[in-house]
Amino acid sequence: MKKLDYRRLKSRSRHFLFGMNFTDGIVYKFVIYTLLISFSYIYLYPVLFMTVNSFMSVDDLINPGVKWIPSSLQFVNYGRALQVLELPGSIVGTTSYVLKVSISVTISSAIIGYGFAKFRFPLKNLLFVLMLATFILPSQVTMVANMLIFRNLGLMSTQKSMIYPAIFGQGVNAAIYILIFYQFFKTIPGVLMESAEVDGASQIKIFTRIAIPLAIPSFLIVFLFSFVWYWNETFITSLYVGGRITLPLKLQAFRASYETLFPPGTAGAELNEAIMLAGNMLTILPLLVLYFIAQRFFVESIDRTGITGE
User: Fold this and answer.
1) Membrane spanning segments where (predicted)?
2) How many domains would you assign to the chain?
């Protein structure tokens, strides 16, 4: 009887620790959650650091005893950062610009990806390789040629210099977007397309009525990727468009703008690290809000588009 109870206890303990298939045991879950918390802390630490320090006063910043809890919350740091970055007008302007180029590159990438996936034409493989090569080439290599082309076309220093390339599949990181659509459209059974052709559907109708509805996850993930990349892009935007049309570009000139609004020597208005961190937080805040709203759809889209190559 004692041996039977011992075996039952041993069996229950083993199931509790390791589960039926090891993946449902407490040991496996402990290891997984420990790794997840560790990696998430590595990625979240800069955001936590910026958030905490953006509310600190000058005394807290230079006080080695103050690490994570400010002695008092300095909301005035965000008030001054709002003035320098000209919010919320800057968010509206940046969002308007980024939406135009993101939607354009998403639509063009879908059309190009569908063409590579479903049609046969001369030099298809060569063109596909050249398309992928555009992602390898750094923007510094082609910037002189692009500037000459845009200047001859009268597009320099206008948003059209970013919108037109996006429309024709040459936007920022467009090769990756085309590859995502290509991978997804390749998974659509050819029998489905052939049956639609037998029923008299044209290629445009097949693309709009069959391919696009099935590719909604791909559209979502490409749009989110392009939105974030265009939002954070400063080098190409400042080179071709010029000015300070986006929040990241205004953040680059934060010090000069601040000194214009609050000249050096103004009592109680000296620029410090906390105010600059507040500006950083306000710049990335729209992207954080976008991610928290769309994170569920984002994860589902990655799983359904086969972006990992599965």
Assistant:
1) 21-44, 97-117, 126-150, 162-185, 206-231, 274-294
2) 2
